[in-house]
Specification:
Layout (H helix, E strand, L loop, with lengths): L1 H17 L13 H4 L3 H10 L11 H16 L8 H11 L1 H4 L14 H7 L6 H10 L13 H14 L4
């Protein structure tokens, strides 16, 4: 529901912004400086200026810019440091089989609790060490570097770090 409202608002802003790129269909009123010119000087200036078609209400550049902006807004994910919701879903889909509830069903003492991470994880208690472990694996843990993307690995590392004090 919230995403739909955001998309509707973004689409409206794109169309409103694109209207600023539309060339006017009618020439604008003559300025006061132009009125002071003599009739012959004004006629000479009009002959020298290229004639504009004025028939196209939408320029291709404005349509392309509006569509590009709309695709970027609708298709892009916000750039967040870490997405804990995504980290949780990645964890549940890939890690929970062995690490449900922060435990370790293979090697019981190597849990995902803060004290165990500080003791057993190469690199200590930080997100970079967790990312390395998830990416490369070690011992009984398989490597997930080929299975998960870098953003998913960042998110699951942030989730594990966040949950390690709660499990």
């Amino acid at each position: 529901m919230f995403r739909s409202a955001c998309l509707l608002a973004a689409g409206s802003l794109v169309l409103y912004g694109a209207s600023g790129f539309v060339s006017p269909a009618q020439p604008t009123a003559v300025s006061s400086a132009a009125r002071s010119l003599s009739a012959s000087a004004l006629a000479a200036a009009e002959e020298a200026a290229p004639a504009s078609s004025g028939s196209a209400a939408w320029s291709p550049l404005a349509i392309g810019a509006a569509l590009g902006l709309m695709v970027a807004v609708m298709g892009g994910r916000p750039a967040l440091a870490a997405d804990l919701e995504n980290g949780e879903s990645v964890f549940l889909g890939n890690c929970a089989a062995c690490h449900a509830g922060g435990n370790n069903s293979v090697v019981a003492e190597k849990t995902l609790r803060k004290a165990a991470i500080e003791q057993y994880l190469t690199g200590g208690y930080n997100a970079a060490a967790i990312k390395t472990q998830v990416t490369n694996g070690k011992g009984s843990m398989p490597a997930f570097g080929d299975k998960l993307g870098p953003d998913d690995i960042d998110d699951v590392a942030a989730y594990v770090l966040d949950q390690s004090t709660k499990w």
